[in-house]
Amino acid sequence: MANSEYEYVKREFEFDRRLPASNWIVVRIDGCHFHRFSKIHAFEKPNDENALRLMNACATSMLEKFPDIVFAYGVSDEYSFVFREETEFYQRRESKILSLCVSYFTSLYGMKWKDFFPNKDLREPPYFDGRVVCYPNMKTIHDYLAWRQVDCHINNHYNTCFWMLVKSGKTEKEAQQTLKGTFSKDKNELLSQQFQVNYEDEPAMFRKGSSVYRDKVETKVKTDDYGNPIKRIRLAITVSNLDIIGPEFWEKHQYILQEGKYRYEYVKKFDDIHRLPCCNWIVVRISACQFDQFSLIHSFDKPNDETALSLMNASASLMMEQFPGIIFGYGFSNEYRYDMPVQHICFCMERTLKNTKKTRIYFST
Ligand SMILES: Nc1nc2c(ncn2[C@@H]2O[C@H](COP(=O)(O)OP(=O)(O)O)[C@@H](O)[C@H]2O)c(=O)[nH]1
Ligand SMILES: [Mg+2]
């Protein structure tokens, strides 16, 4: 591509955040204004089986499309997608990963709608937002998934009771009042005594949410000379509604969340050189650490020690001699600020970091 005089707007302003290596990347998408969307499309309350199956079908297609997604978990209008820990999908560029997941899922939702709602037209375009979160080890990624499933249980338990009360004739306000301050045990009692419903008998998809992953399945590939089937284990994308909080599921499926077998070079990937954007004033503010103690030990005058302040000013003057890029410095008490053009920031930052424990950078335009 030819370089024009305008090409700097890409070089100098476009920054691609790369997600840290050796982390599990999770993209969580969530339906936008689905409270309204579900009303307009007359979803059954509190759970619309077809709507949930549509979400699961979209998640399944996500795993087919993006092999680096190793696990997905969904409930209501949200789905979380877990990428394998050592994925190099789009060089771990955050905006690419996030935008691809959100846009592909949204397209799938629209495309598959008719398969699940053959008699309902899409009356508004469905759309989703998304976020990316990185989890640094196996414990945190397991805890993340457990958190979503606990959330699913709490919401569904409440919603099941709420809508049974409403369907039995209570107003929404009365139902809310009845459930206020109730514990899990109370909700189970209410369901069994008033509605003869055992919560555990409710569909697992509603109670546990849905997990999508590659499961090991045995398939017959051919028959040997004696007519016996020859079977092979292969991985097939599966949707299940199992408990993923306890260890059983993960013990049985250890291969799903396997930590990467990195060679030591991967640590270099943490060296993400962060360039500061051009056309911005850069302010480096340094503030001394534990100066209360330091001034006490060195018997500084209270409230101001003229010599200490002069020492700060002299140090600032030397900084400006050393780094001509600094155009202004302002200080009081134990703090100093420098404004400087971009090209000097790296060198200066190195020096600054060596001399202080705390450094902050501010951008202003
Ligand atoms: N009736 C019904 N509503 C659902 C179903 N799944 C999701 N929703 C709606 O979608 C909302 C999702 O919650 P949230 O993301 O916080 O709300 P949003 O900001 O309106 O998308 C729920 O509060 C429900 O109103 C369903 O299966 N049935
Ligand atoms: Mg939503």
UniProtKB/TrEMBL annotation:
Enzyme class: transferase
Entry function: Adds a GMP to the 5'-end of tRNA(His) after transcription and RNase P cleavage.
Pfam families to which the protein is assigned, alphabetical: Thg1, Thg1C
InterPro entries reported for this sequence: Thg1_C_dom, tRNAHis_GuaTrfase_cat, tRNAHis_GuaTrfase_Thg1, tRNAHis_GuaTrfase_Thg1_sf
Gene Ontology cellular-component terms listed: nucleoplasm
UniProt similarity note: Belongs to the tRNA(His) guanylyltransferase family.
Residues in tRNAHis guanylyltransferase catalytic domain copies: 6-136, 264-337
Residue intervals of the Thg1 C-terminal domain: 140-245
Species assigned in the record: Triticum turgidum subsp. durum (Durum wheat)
Listed name of the protein: tRNA(His) guanylyltransferase
Principal localisation: nucleus
Cofactor(s) the record lists: Mg(2+)
Documented EC number(s): 2.7.7.79
This protein's record includes keyword Ion transport: no
Catalytic reaction list: a 5'-end ribonucleotide-tRNA(His) + GTP + ATP + H2O = a 5'-end phospho-guanosine-ribonucleotide-tRNA(His) + AMP + 2 diphosphate + H(+)
Keyword terms, alphabetized: GTP-binding, Magnesium, Metal-binding, Nucleotide-binding, Nucleotidyltransferase, Nucleus, Transferase, tRNA processing
Intracellular or extracellular location(s): Nucleus
Coiled coil regions, renumbered to chain: none
Superkingdom: Eukaryota
UniProt-listed GO biological process terms: tRNA modification
A molecular function (GO) term: magnesium ion binding
